[in-house]
Amino acid sequence: MFVLLAMACNPEVGGNFLDSNIRCDNDVFGWFDDLALYVDRGEPKEGAEATYAWDFDYEPANVRSVKGSYSTRSGNFDYTVEYTNDSYMVSKRTIAEFGNYGTVYTNGNLDVRAKITEEDVLGNTVTYVRRDERMGCKGWIKYRWEEDDGSLPRYPQYEVAYDIVSDDKVEWSAETEVGSGIESAWGQWTSELAYVRNVSYDGDTIAYDSWSRTNSKGEETQEWSQVHKDSNYVYIGTTDVAKNGFTVEDYTVAEGSEEPYADVHTERNYDGSGTGLWTFSDGTTCDLTYGADDSCVYTCSDGDSGDC
Known about the structure:
This protein is mainly beta and about 300 residues long. The chain has one domain. It has one helix at about 35-40; strands at about 45, 50-55, 65-70, 75-85, 90-95, 100-105, 110-120, 125-135, 140-145, 160-165, 170-180, 180-190, 195-200, 205-215, 220-230, 235-240, 245-255, 260-270, 275-280, 285-290, 295-300, 305. The radius of gyration is 22 Å and the shape is elongated.
């Protein structure tokens, strides 16, 4: 899932559409990433009455430019976000045939709907409908992901509720059904172009907790734990993700409350290829090689080898 990758923008540009009668006392409208920001950075389009157009560059670490337009008369809009060459993302664009429309109010309120396709460097795409609503300092972002046959679910599958709590911070939360349980997520977007996310889940067969922070350079750090209830295996570790998707992971493996019996270190590219090393408590080591085709083979110091 690519959604929520870039939620903050450079606060140094804009101010052509929103007026001084903003309904929220906390002014995040120079950096919070949604259609209101894009329109506010736009200018009246020459030769197109009641239309604002934008084409600007900014630096939320992984984004290169945003281009698009919005008609204040019909409410129709389209935009394209292009990512930097060193990002694992390529683009995010609205699908014009869907008829993206809604209202960006000059007081900062928002009610718009768009169908969006995101593409990564491997050519993978994900398509979804996003609905943005904001009244004053409270907002909601609702998602419906396209099925394999091109159809869309009738109701939102994921809803983010947020509160604009200061000029520099927006706090958000979300809950969604995952298997036999409810996954709870909460975090912050800040004017420093940083993104914090916490996730907690407790299902019939697995439970997990994680904390992550993406800094202004687009680098993500995660701390996490997983408990597999059927096998009683416990995994605790950290994951560092570079802007290009290169991932370094370190974690321990234990049974229940026992001391860990293995330490694991992996380094993998965005396509999944890479290497790993398992070090067991008895001194045995196993080298792993991952392929971009999801393959994995191992060779151990005790002579054992095979597919992972």
